[in-house]
């Protein structure tokens, strides 16, 4: 099975390439290194022993993206990661997020329909739930107005996919498309080899790389945004999932979309998390334990766009995809720190 992966050199995409190769599938990577590095291609070859096909293409370039489908031929599935993803940046610059995240998806769906690609896995987010009324949040929870433009792009993208799948069923000239929407929670960790991991270019928008960069002396101080939330220690609670578990979920989802008995316009959402919530301060203290270091941090004001707490119900993914997370936050933070230390010799991280 030949699988196109947009954003395949990014944090989650690169680990998913490894999972695909491990499962005997053939990844084709599309990326423009907007938030990654060409080094990742070398690292993937070292880890997997294979050299995946790669195209340096921006998904906002519809013509170039269509050429990838034409040149490769027989692409049977697509996993779409390529998107901007920082909540805070999306609040400050919403048009950047709407232009990129919506446009790239539309540009991808067009050639998928023309080339009769029947399986799509979409990188969605738990942000579609906003602050859920009950926890853990299930896939039947209401999709509420998003707390950030980033979250809104994920909601709109899901609707675009649902509408496209439904219309495709009605069009006799096109083969049916099945889509899986993976609403995942907070990815952390890195490959245990230390060869690939999260590589934010510039100031990190996510907590764990900011923690590891602070520990490494790249950042002078970590700010914990808000300590007056209605949680046990006053800091936000999230469901932190190891990136390798998340990568494996994409392979399970792709096989589900390709092999489900009813292949007429399936569009299903799944939560991908651990089912457990951990606070920001828990993560800070756990990192200090696994690294043996003391972090320089301060308690700051709440950050615009953040919700108080969210963690997943993962029953549906376990029952229908046959997937469950295998790794805990200790392993995730240990792997992330190993990656950060390795970055010093690679000289890839940028201030």
From TrEMBL:
Domain NAD(P)-binding, chain residue ranges per copy: 4-335
Pathway the protein contributes to: Carbohydrate metabolism; galactose metabolism
GO MF annotation terms: UDP-glucose 4-epimerase activity
UniProt cross-references to InterPro entries, sorted A to Z: NAD(P)-bd_dom, NAD(P)-bd_dom_sf, UDP_G4E
E.C. code: 5.1.3.2
Subunit composition and interactions: Homodimer.
Protein name as it appears in the record: UDP-glucose 4-epimerase
Organism of origin: Microscilla marina ATCC 23134
